[in-house]
Amino acid sequence: MKTNIEYTASTVPTQFVSVNGTPFAYRRFGNKAGLPLVHLQHFTGTMENWDPKVLDALAREREIIIFNNRGVASTGGETPDSIAAIAQDAAAFIDALGLKKIDLLGFSMGGMVAQQVTLDRPELVNKLILLGTAPRGGHEIDDFTPEVWAIFAKEFPSEYEILLETLFSPTPTSQQAANEFLSRVKNGRTENRDSKISEQVAPAQSAAIKGWANINPGDYTYLKAIKQPVFVLTGHNDIIFPTVNSFLLQQNLPDAQLIIYPDSNHGAQYQFPGLFVKQLTAFLEDIR
Question: What is the DSSP string of 237-251?
């Protein structure tokens, strides 16, 4: 049996833990020297949607934990339709692993969940990373734009090609990075890939995002309760959750830094994976 640090994102086995009677699928690997870095995934995403290049680079310094929340892909149960309920399940999963202190990363919808987990369980979260996400009641997040709905209406060869347009900009440089990312997520793991999501996931998660968007729109005072250091990152033109939402997070969180990458969209961290890992590592190691 290999030790965890010898695994990569592409070879680490999927494990299961019971969370209030429901089997939750997860993968856990990396350097156990630092606090575990728990990842919360985007809308309709599974464990296969994380960039293995980013995970492997981060795993050199700390343990990485990715998982499917309730009702998603290989995890049992029904997908909750509120951010609050998704956050409760995420916290219960972390508890089921016996973890007492973590760093928490949330991408897109996962960033909303990460905020709620931090509010609910402040003693659990050491540092918070929010990527391509928005505050509760954020700017123009209650519905996607016609541009985004047009992308969703297209037919793609697989569930991955849509990421070329939703996560990356249409520029040649961004699309080159997009195709490199697509190759990594499609081909990095060749065995024991995660199962596909059910038809129930998207409507439930859409309702969760809409509910988050409609809680006291424009009132960001709740963010003052998040005392942890926060790393906020977005792209120059995020078409999913407009870029201004990351600015609103930084302005209203007591201890937050904001990075905006050029020539980029919703998945800016995947367009600049090396730079992202370097900057996030500096944040996690408190290099100032």
Answer: T-SSS-THHHHHHHH
- Joined together, the tokens standing for residue 272 give 């600049």
Q: Are 46 and 197 in contact (CB under 8 A)?
A: yes
pLDDT for 40-71, tens place per residue? 999 999 999 999 999 999 999 999 999 999 99
pLDDT at 159 (0 to 100): 83
Question: What are residue 58's phi and psi, to 5 degrees?
Answer: -65, -35
> CA–CA separation, 35 vs 77, rounded Å?
29
HEC string for 172-214: HHHHHHHHHHHHHHHHCCCCCCCCCCCCCHHHHHHHHHHHHHC
Helix (H) or strand (E) segment spanning residue 103:
strand 102-107
Query: SS3 helix, strand, coil % of the chain, rounded to 5?
Result: 40, 15, 45
- Answer whether residue 5 shows pLDDT above 70: no
Mean pLDDT (the chain) is 95
